[in-house]
């Protein structure tokens, strides 16, 4: 790791350590004596080039670009602090960007971008709640104030991604034959502030979990939550 990379993480208030092992690049968050630290693991059989493309100390975010010389390793990541913890999000290849602002927009799914445009919501880098959506972690909630579900709703459901802690919801509804989820009421998670949805909201997940195209190089990710 170069001094520039260490300085970039220090600029946003984060500590970072590096180890060399295995055959793939990894970036994740580790606990050390009760403190969170970024871990960058470099493969044994390659020379990795890492560059901080955009560093925003006030926002406590940066965009990290990683590429390898011999192994098929390439990726771009948004690293930063969200509410209580540090996080790392792999940016989708189809919408890569060099800026923190662009990375935040790239992580928004198409449904969220359409809702922003429809309601005239301008980009707000730190807003977790707008007229178009409410966000908690990797989940976006799009308001559906005219929606009525009645007895079809299920009490005490959860939203969970593969390997993550569940976001617990007070009411949940999954229409039969449709790949959609709607929630209402309290939405809680141990790493995030509880939000309260007075009307039904459609649930969409961010773009971090989009599969990497087979024609592209690969990276491997682990997650904090």
Molecular shape: elongated
Low-pLDDT stretches are 210-225
Q: What is the makeup of the main sheet? A: 6 strands, antiparallel
Helicity, in percent? 10-25%
Average of pLDDT: 85
- Supply Rg: 19 Å
From the N-terminal CA to the C-terminal CA, the straight-line distance is 25 Å
Provide the domain count.
Answer: 2
Number of helices: 3
How large a portion of the residues is in β-strands, by DSSP E? 35-45%
Kindly report the spatial arrangement of strands forming the biggest sheet: 8-9-13-12-11-10
**SS-derived structural category:** mainly beta
Number of beta strands: 13
* SSE order: HEEEEEEEHHEEEEEE
Overview of the structural elements:
The protein is mostly beta strands. It folds into two domains: 3-107, no CATH class; 110-207, no CATH class. It has three helices and 13 strands. The protein has helices at residues 3-11, 100-106, 110-119; strands spanning 16-20, 26-32, 35-42, 48-56, 61-68, 74-82, 85-90, 134-136, 139-143, 154-159, 167-173, 182-189, 192-205. A hairpin with a 2-residue loop joins strand 2 (26-32) and strand 3 (35-42). The chain is elongated and about 60 Å long. Residues 210-225 have low confidence and may be disordered.
